[in-house]
Amino acid sequence: MNKNIKEKINTLWVNSEVTALLQEFLYQLRSILLEKFIGLYVGGSIANSSFNPNTSDIDCYIVTSAHLCENTITQIEIMHNQLYSSQLPYAKKVEASYISQIELWDFNPEKSRPYFNEGKLYQAPYNSNFIIELFMLRNKGFAISGPPIKNLIQEISTQDLQLAIKRNLYDYWQVMLFDLVKLSRSDYQVFAILTMCRTLYSIEKGDIASKIGAAKWVIDKYNIWEDLITKALAWEPDLELNKLNETQQFIKYVLDKNL
User: Domain Adenylyltransferase AadA C-terminal spans what residues (predicted)?
Assistant: First the structure.
Protein backbone atom coordinates (compact mmCIF):
# COMPACT_ATOMS: atom_id res chain seq x y z
CA MET A 1 0.00 0.00 0.00
CA ASN A 2 1.10 3.56 -0.76
CA LYS A 3 3.12 4.99 2.16
CA ASN A 4 1.14 8.25 2.16
CA ILE A 5 -2.13 6.34 2.55
CA LYS A 6 -0.72 4.38 5.48
CA GLU A 7 0.35 7.63 7.10
CA LYS A 8 -3.10 9.16 6.56
CA ILE A 9 -4.83 6.16 8.13
CA ASN A 10 -2.43 6.27 11.07
CA THR A 11 -3.53 9.84 11.86
CA LEU A 12 -7.05 8.62 12.64
CA TRP A 13 -8.09 8.52 16.27
CA VAL A 14 -8.22 4.72 16.30
CA ASN A 15 -6.05 1.79 17.34
CA SER A 16 -3.68 -0.20 15.14
CA GLU A 17 -6.22 -2.99 14.59
CA VAL A 18 -8.77 -0.61 13.06
CA THR A 19 -5.97 0.86 10.97
CA ALA A 20 -5.07 -2.60 9.64
CA LEU A 21 -8.72 -3.29 8.83
CA LEU A 22 -9.09 -0.05 6.86
CA GLN A 23 -5.90 -0.78 4.94
CA GLU A 24 -7.18 -4.22 3.94
CA PHE A 25 -10.62 -2.84 3.07
CA LEU A 26 -9.10 -0.18 0.82
CA TYR A 27 -6.96 -2.77 -0.97
CA GLN A 28 -10.00 -4.98 -1.63
CA LEU A 29 -12.11 -2.06 -2.85
CA ARG A 30 -9.50 -0.93 -5.34
CA SER A 31 -9.03 -4.49 -6.60
CA ILE A 32 -12.75 -4.79 -7.39
CA LEU A 33 -13.72 -1.27 -8.47
CA LEU A 34 -10.57 -0.47 -10.48
CA GLU A 35 -11.12 2.77 -12.42
CA LYS A 36 -14.58 3.21 -10.89
CA PHE A 37 -13.02 3.87 -7.48
CA ILE A 38 -13.08 7.56 -6.52
CA GLY A 39 -12.51 7.47 -2.77
CA LEU A 40 -12.96 5.82 0.61
CA TYR A 41 -14.11 8.05 3.47
CA VAL A 42 -14.89 7.48 7.13
CA GLY A 43 -17.45 9.38 9.17
CA GLY A 44 -19.31 8.75 12.41
CA SER A 45 -17.46 8.38 15.69
CA ILE A 46 -14.05 8.06 14.01
CA ALA A 47 -14.50 11.42 12.28
CA ASN A 48 -15.72 12.89 15.57
CA SER A 49 -12.67 11.59 17.45
CA SER A 50 -14.99 9.69 19.79
CA PHE A 51 -14.47 6.09 18.63
CA ASN A 52 -15.24 3.54 21.34
CA PRO A 53 -13.65 0.17 20.49
CA ASN A 54 -16.37 -1.66 22.41
CA THR A 55 -19.49 -0.01 21.03
CA SER A 56 -18.73 2.13 17.95
CA ASP A 57 -19.25 1.17 14.33
CA ILE A 58 -16.81 1.99 11.54
CA ASP A 59 -18.85 4.13 9.15
CA CYS A 60 -17.41 3.91 5.62
CA TYR A 61 -18.52 5.70 2.46
CA ILE A 62 -17.25 4.53 -0.91
CA VAL A 63 -17.63 6.99 -3.78
CA THR A 64 -17.63 5.58 -7.31
CA SER A 65 -17.45 7.18 -10.75
CA ALA A 66 -20.73 5.56 -11.83
CA HIS A 67 -23.53 3.33 -10.58
CA LEU A 68 -22.35 -0.21 -9.96
CA CYS A 69 -23.52 -3.06 -12.18
CA GLU A 70 -24.92 -6.28 -10.74
CA ASN A 71 -21.69 -8.19 -11.36
CA THR A 72 -19.64 -5.63 -9.42
CA ILE A 73 -22.17 -5.60 -6.58
CA THR A 74 -21.90 -9.39 -6.39
CA GLN A 75 -18.11 -9.14 -6.13
CA ILE A 76 -18.47 -6.52 -3.39
CA GLU A 77 -20.89 -8.75 -1.51
CA ILE A 78 -18.44 -11.67 -1.63
CA MET A 79 -15.63 -9.40 -0.43
CA HIS A 80 -17.71 -8.09 2.47
CA ASN A 81 -18.77 -11.58 3.51
CA GLN A 82 -15.16 -12.74 3.53
CA LEU A 83 -14.06 -9.68 5.49
CA TYR A 84 -16.95 -10.08 7.93
CA SER A 85 -16.08 -13.71 8.65
CA SER A 86 -12.33 -13.07 8.82
CA GLN A 87 -10.24 -13.00 11.97
CA LEU A 88 -9.54 -9.28 11.59
CA PRO A 89 -10.60 -7.45 14.76
CA TYR A 90 -13.48 -5.00 14.22
CA ALA A 91 -14.38 -6.55 10.84
CA LYS A 92 -17.96 -6.98 12.03
CA LYS A 93 -18.13 -3.27 12.90
CA VAL A 94 -17.88 -2.09 9.29
CA GLU A 95 -20.88 -0.30 7.81
CA ALA A 96 -20.42 0.65 4.16
CA SER A 97 -22.46 2.81 1.79
CA TYR A 98 -21.68 2.83 -1.95
CA ILE A 99 -22.70 5.98 -3.78
CA SER A 100 -21.83 7.36 -7.21
CA GLN A 101 -20.16 10.74 -7.52
CA ILE A 102 -23.12 12.20 -9.45
CA GLU A 103 -25.68 10.93 -6.95
CA LEU A 104 -23.62 12.24 -4.06
CA TRP A 105 -23.52 15.75 -5.53
CA ASP A 106 -27.19 15.86 -6.59
CA PHE A 107 -28.40 13.97 -3.56
CA ASN A 108 -31.97 12.66 -3.55
CA PRO A 109 -33.11 11.07 -0.25
CA GLU A 110 -35.82 9.12 -2.10
CA LYS A 111 -33.23 6.91 -3.83
CA SER A 112 -31.26 3.96 -2.43
CA ARG A 113 -27.70 2.64 -2.43
CA PRO A 114 -25.85 -0.65 -1.89
CA TYR A 115 -25.30 -0.84 1.86
CA PHE A 116 -23.48 -3.39 4.00
CA ASN A 117 -24.30 -3.81 7.68
CA GLU A 118 -24.36 -6.70 10.16
CA GLY A 119 -23.31 -9.31 7.62
CA LYS A 120 -25.69 -8.33 4.80
CA LEU A 121 -25.43 -6.29 1.61
CA TYR A 122 -28.70 -4.84 0.35
CA GLN A 123 -30.28 -1.84 -1.36
CA ALA A 124 -31.05 0.56 1.47
CA PRO A 125 -33.10 3.75 1.06
CA TYR A 126 -31.26 6.92 2.00
CA ASN A 127 -34.17 8.62 3.76
CA SER A 128 -33.71 11.83 5.73
CA ASN A 129 -31.18 10.23 8.08
CA PHE A 130 -28.58 10.11 5.29
CA ILE A 131 -28.69 13.92 5.05
CA ILE A 132 -27.53 13.94 8.67
CA GLU A 133 -24.74 11.52 7.76
CA LEU A 134 -23.70 13.68 4.80
CA PHE A 135 -23.58 16.79 7.00
CA MET A 136 -21.23 14.97 9.36
CA LEU A 137 -19.20 13.52 6.49
CA ARG A 138 -18.77 16.85 4.70
CA ASN A 139 -17.79 18.78 7.81
CA LYS A 140 -15.79 16.19 9.74
CA GLY A 141 -15.25 13.19 7.47
CA PHE A 142 -11.81 11.79 6.74
CA ALA A 143 -10.48 10.76 3.33
CA ILE A 144 -8.62 7.45 3.51
CA SER A 145 -8.09 7.77 -0.23
CA GLY A 146 -9.54 10.20 -2.74
CA PRO A 147 -10.17 13.92 -3.19
CA PRO A 148 -11.32 16.10 -0.24
CA ILE A 149 -14.87 15.11 0.65
CA LYS A 150 -16.00 18.76 0.60
CA ASN A 151 -15.37 18.72 -3.14
CA LEU A 152 -17.92 15.92 -3.58
CA ILE A 153 -20.84 17.00 -1.36
CA GLN A 154 -22.77 20.23 -1.70
CA GLU A 155 -22.99 22.34 1.44
CA ILE A 156 -25.90 21.37 3.69
CA SER A 157 -27.42 24.32 5.52
CA THR A 158 -28.23 24.36 9.22
CA GLN A 159 -31.91 24.59 8.32
CA ASP A 160 -31.72 21.52 6.07
CA LEU A 161 -29.92 19.61 8.82
CA GLN A 162 -32.55 20.50 11.41
CA LEU A 163 -35.37 19.62 9.01
CA ALA A 164 -33.77 16.25 8.25
CA ILE A 165 -33.46 15.49 11.96
CA LYS A 166 -37.13 16.29 12.55
CA ARG A 167 -38.14 14.17 9.55
CA ASN A 168 -36.09 11.30 10.92
CA LEU A 169 -37.87 11.65 14.25
CA TYR A 170 -41.22 11.44 12.51
CA ASP A 171 -40.36 8.72 9.97
CA TYR A 172 -38.25 6.44 12.15
CA TRP A 173 -38.46 7.12 15.87
CA GLN A 174 -42.21 7.65 16.07
CA VAL A 175 -42.56 4.08 14.78
CA MET A 176 -39.58 2.72 16.72
CA LEU A 177 -41.15 3.90 19.97
CA PHE A 178 -43.43 0.85 19.81
CA ASP A 179 -40.94 -1.68 18.39
CA LEU A 180 -40.48 -3.75 21.54
CA VAL A 181 -38.36 -6.35 19.74
CA LYS A 182 -35.58 -3.84 19.10
CA LEU A 183 -36.08 -1.61 22.13
CA SER A 184 -35.92 -4.58 24.49
CA ARG A 185 -32.27 -5.05 23.47
CA SER A 186 -29.77 -3.24 25.68
CA ASP A 187 -27.61 -2.18 22.74
CA TYR A 188 -30.61 -0.61 21.03
CA GLN A 189 -31.69 1.16 24.20
CA VAL A 190 -28.22 2.73 24.39
CA PHE A 191 -28.39 3.65 20.70
CA ALA A 192 -31.82 5.25 21.17
CA ILE A 193 -30.86 7.19 24.30
CA LEU A 194 -27.67 8.62 22.81
CA THR A 195 -29.37 9.37 19.48
CA MET A 196 -32.07 11.32 21.33
CA CYS A 197 -29.31 13.30 23.05
CA ARG A 198 -27.74 14.15 19.72
CA THR A 199 -31.18 15.03 18.32
CA LEU A 200 -31.87 17.53 21.09
CA TYR A 201 -28.41 19.05 20.68
CA SER A 202 -28.50 19.29 16.90
CA ILE A 203 -31.96 20.82 16.66
CA GLU A 204 -31.03 23.54 19.14
CA LYS A 205 -27.43 24.14 18.03
CA GLY A 206 -27.69 23.46 14.29
CA ASP A 207 -24.61 21.25 14.40
CA ILE A 208 -23.66 17.65 15.16
CA ALA A 209 -21.67 16.73 18.25
CA SER A 210 -20.32 13.35 19.22
CA LYS A 211 -22.84 11.23 21.07
CA ILE A 212 -20.79 11.62 24.24
CA GLY A 213 -20.57 15.39 23.83
CA ALA A 214 -24.29 15.68 23.11
CA ALA A 215 -25.11 13.43 26.08
CA LYS A 216 -23.14 15.63 28.46
CA TRP A 217 -24.85 18.72 27.04
CA VAL A 218 -28.31 17.19 27.60
CA ILE A 219 -27.40 16.18 31.17
CA ASP A 220 -26.47 19.79 31.93
CA LYS A 221 -29.57 21.22 30.26
CA TYR A 222 -32.21 18.59 31.07
CA ASN A 223 -31.07 17.05 34.36
CA ILE A 224 -34.22 14.92 34.70
CA TRP A 225 -32.60 12.47 32.27
CA GLU A 226 -29.20 12.37 33.96
CA ASP A 227 -29.49 8.87 35.46
CA LEU A 228 -30.69 7.27 32.21
CA ILE A 229 -28.05 8.97 30.07
CA THR A 230 -25.23 8.24 32.52
CA LYS A 231 -26.12 4.55 32.51
CA ALA A 232 -26.21 4.53 28.70
CA LEU A 233 -22.75 6.13 28.55
CA ALA A 234 -21.35 3.55 30.96
CA TRP A 235 -22.88 0.55 29.17
CA GLU A 236 -20.66 -2.22 27.81
CA PRO A 237 -21.74 -5.00 25.39
CA ASP A 238 -21.68 -7.72 28.05
CA LEU A 239 -24.06 -5.79 30.37
CA GLU A 240 -27.84 -5.55 30.55
CA LEU A 241 -29.31 -2.05 30.65
CA ASN A 242 -32.95 -2.98 31.37
CA LYS A 243 -34.27 0.53 30.76
CA LEU A 244 -37.06 -0.14 28.26
CA ASN A 245 -39.73 2.03 29.90
CA GLU A 246 -37.35 4.91 30.58
CA THR A 247 -36.00 4.73 27.03
CA GLN A 248 -39.52 4.92 25.61
CA GLN A 249 -40.29 7.88 27.87
CA PHE A 250 -37.17 9.69 26.67
CA ILE A 251 -38.00 9.06 23.01
CA LYS A 252 -41.55 10.30 23.61
CA TYR A 253 -40.20 13.40 25.35
CA VAL A 254 -38.02 14.27 22.36
CA LEU A 255 -40.86 13.54 19.92
CA ASP A 256 -43.32 15.72 21.84
CA LYS A 257 -40.77 18.52 22.05
CA ASN A 258 -40.02 18.63 18.33
CA LEU A 259 -43.05 17.41 16.36
Answer: 172-251
